[in-house]
Specification:
This protein is α+β, with helices and mostly antiparallel strands. It folds into two domains: 73 residues, Ubiquitin-like (UB roll) (Roll), CATH 3.10.20; 83 residues, [2Fe-2S]-binding domain (DNA polymerase, domain 1), CATH 1.10.150. It is 36% helix and 14% strand. It has five helices and seven strands, in the order E-E-H-E-E-E-E-E-H-H-H-H. The strands form two sheets. It has a five-stranded mixed sheet with strand order 2-1-5-3-4, covered by helices on one side. Strands 6-7 form a two-stranded antiparallel ribbon. It binds FE2/S2 (inorganic) cluster (FES) (2 copies).
């Protein structure tokens, strides 16, 4: 089976019912995506599947075949000269000094990136609702909320 992650095609040896999370982490070595609950509850394993924030711990890898997967390693953009530009969400999480232990952070950022792509000027209530199902055991919720608002502003500035 072949899957496409961060624009690169990979031939996968895992069985079709293997959760995408373990293929990403164990078979392909992309360890930025984290295991939290394994039950689709906490959000720490969130990746994008065709641009939609998706919990990779409960998605069989076979369901990802033929789709475009993005992990935290592919969120930044790299130009032809190899210069990397962080995604506005990554920059905002740095600017607001959000992470503590950081375990939940790639899932938080992937959720936020998909959210602001569809809602470029979110209200505070919309941010709370969109991010509410991503748990942070360190309790960084206020900074996460601020960072998502800041990321939306950065994204609009860079789009101008
Ligand atoms: S590890 Fe996937 S939702 Fe918790
Ligand atoms: S920063 Fe530690 S779980 Fe969120």
């Amino acid at each position: 089976m072949q899957i496409t992650i961060n624009g690169e095609a990979f031939e996968v040896q895992s069985p079709p019912d293997e959760p995408l999370l373990w293929v990403i982490r164990d078979e392909l070595g992309l360890t930025g995506t984290k295991f939290g609950c394994g039950l689709g509850i906490c959000g720490s394993c969130t990746v994008h599947v065709d641009g939609v924030a998706t919990r990779s711990c409960i998605l069989p890898v076979s369901a990802a075949e033929g789709k475009s997967i993005t992990t935290i390693e592919g969120l930044a953009t790299v130009d032809d000269a190899g210069q990397e530009t962080l995604h506005p969400v990554q920059q905002a999480f740095i600017d607001q000094q959000v992470p503590q232990c950081s375990w939940c952070m790639s899932g938080q950022m992937m959720t936020a990136a998909a959210f602001i792509a569809n809602n470029p000027a979110p209200s505070e209530d919309q941010i709370i609702e969109a991010m509410g199902a991503n748990y942070c055991r360190c309790g960084c919720y206020f900074r996460i909320k601020s960072a998502v608002a800041h990321a939306a502003e950065l994204a609009q500035e860079t789009a101008v």
